[in-house]
Amino acid sequence: MVKLEEVSADQFDDVDKQVLSDDGDDNYSDFSDDDFDDDEDESILDRIVALKEIIPLKHRNRISSSASTLTSWSKTGATFVGKSAWVITTSMLLLVLPLALEIEKEQALVAYEKEAMQQQGAQQMLVGQQPGQPQQPGQPGQPQQLAPPGF
């Protein structure tokens, strides 16, 4: 059998004053570290589910609708970015890549012509004619230049 003893409010206040005056600490708390039992088996998911009881239904519905709206906007944005990247990439491959290849071919052709001109100048120097001098029409071994009609 349990024995109950009645404690008056005055006695309780006297005990609190005595404890505060004995301790001398202004940061007194009724909560002690020994009473705190950290349940390590409880997961974060369990704690989040426990919040369901704390947050009112109206606020939970508002949070849920905001989260679903944010999710749908994110999916729409990701889809748009993906499709835009696909269009830009394929357009670049179809339009810019052939142009870049043709520019590279043109540069290679110009470099080849420049090299050929240098070799021709070197051959003319070996034969004895300077590259800046005009050709004399009667020299053997020299190609004749053709004049266009009307000149």
UniProtKB/TrEMBL annotation:
InterPro entries per UniProt: Tom22
A matching Pfam family: Tom22
Membrane topology, record value: Single-pass membrane protein
Compositional bias annotation for Acidic residues: 22-38
UniProt subcellular location: Mitochondrion outer membrane
Keyword annotations of the record: Membrane, Mitochondrion, Mitochondrion outer membrane, Protein transport, Receptor, Translocation, Transmembrane, Transmembrane helix, Transport
Coiled-coil intervals: none
GO cellular component terms listed in the entry, alphabetical order: mitochondrial outer membrane
Entry's Gene Ontology BP terms: intracellular protein transport
Region entry Disordered, spans: 1-38, 120-151
Family of the protein in this entry: Belongs to the Tom22 family.
Protein's recorded name: Mitochondrial outer membrane translocase complex, subunit Tom22
